[in-house]
Write a structure and sequence with these properties.
54% helix, alpha+beta, 6 helices, two-stranded antiparallel ribbon, four-stranded antiparallel β-sheet
C-alpha cells in the first residue's frame, strides 16, 4: 500500500494478500466454531479430525500476517475475517442443528387439545395439570430434534398464541417410545 496524490493505493499483490488472509480466517474460525459445537455435542472423533485441519489453516493465516506485520491492512483483514468467521460458523451450526431440544409449554386450561394436536404432528409430548397465578394450566414437555425447533414454536403459537414457551437442550436422553421412533426414522413423515 502506498500514498499517491492524496489517496491510499493498494497494489494487486497487496489486495490479493488481504483477500487471502480474510478468506483463511473465515474458514479457520468457521472450523473452530463447528469443532467446538461438535465437541460439546459428543462428536469427539469428528471434532478431533476438524481440529487437525483447523490448526493448519490457522498457522498459514497467522504466518501470512506475521510475515507482513508492517502492512496494517493484513492485520485488519485478519481481524475482520475472524469476526466474519464467527458469523459464518454460527450459521453453519444452525443449519447442522445437531441434537435435541426440550420445550416446556404452559397453556390455559381451556386448551386441552394442544397435547393431542402436537402428538398428531409427531412430537413427543408429556402433559400434566398445573396451577398458575391466574388459575389452572396445562403443562407440557416436548422433545424434538433441533432441526424441527422453529417449526414446533410456529405450531404452538398457531394453536395457542398466548402459550408460555421455554426451551433448553437436554444433556442425556434415555428410554421412552419417542427415542425409539426417532432412531427408526418414523418421525415427521
Amino acid at each position: 500500500m502506498f500514498f499517491h496524490e492524496g489517496k491510499f493505493i493498494m497494489s494487486n499483490d497487496a489486495l490479493l494478500m488481504v483477500l487471502i488472509i480474510f478468506t483463511i480466517n473465515i474458514v479457520y474460525v468457521s472450523f473452530f466454531t463447528v469443532r467446538m459445537i461438535m465437541t460439546l455435542k459428543g462428536y469427539r472423533y469428528f471434532a478431533a479430525f476438524l481440529s487437525t485441519i483447523e490448526v493448519v489453516i490457522y498457522v498459514v493465516g497467522l504466518g501470512l500476517v506475521l510475515d507482513n506485520l508492517n502492512e496494517i491492512q493484513n492485520l485488519i483483514a485478519y481481524a475482520v475475517g475472524y469476526g466474519t468467521g464467527v458469523l459464518v460458523g454460527t450459521k453453519i451450526e444452525e443449519k447442522m442443528a445437531l441434537g435435541y431440544i426440550t420445550v416446556n409449554v404452559i397453556t390455559t386450561e381451556e386448551n386441552r387439545t394442544l397435547p393431542r394436536l402436537l402428538r398428531d404432528k409427531g412430537y413427543g409430548v408429556t402433559d400434566w395439570e398445573a396451577n398458575g397465578l391466574e388459575g389452572n394450566r396445562k403443562a407440557m414437555q416436548i422433545l424434538t430434534p433441533r432441526k424441527y425447533e422453529l417449526k414446533l414454536y410456529a405450531t404452538i403459537k398457531e394453536l395457542d398464541p398466548k402459550a408460555f414457551i421455554i426451551a433448553y437442550e437436554p444433556k442425556t436422553i434415555h428410554g421412552g417410545f419417542w427415542v425409539k421412533t426417532v432412531r427408526k426414522g418414523k418421525l415427521f413423515k
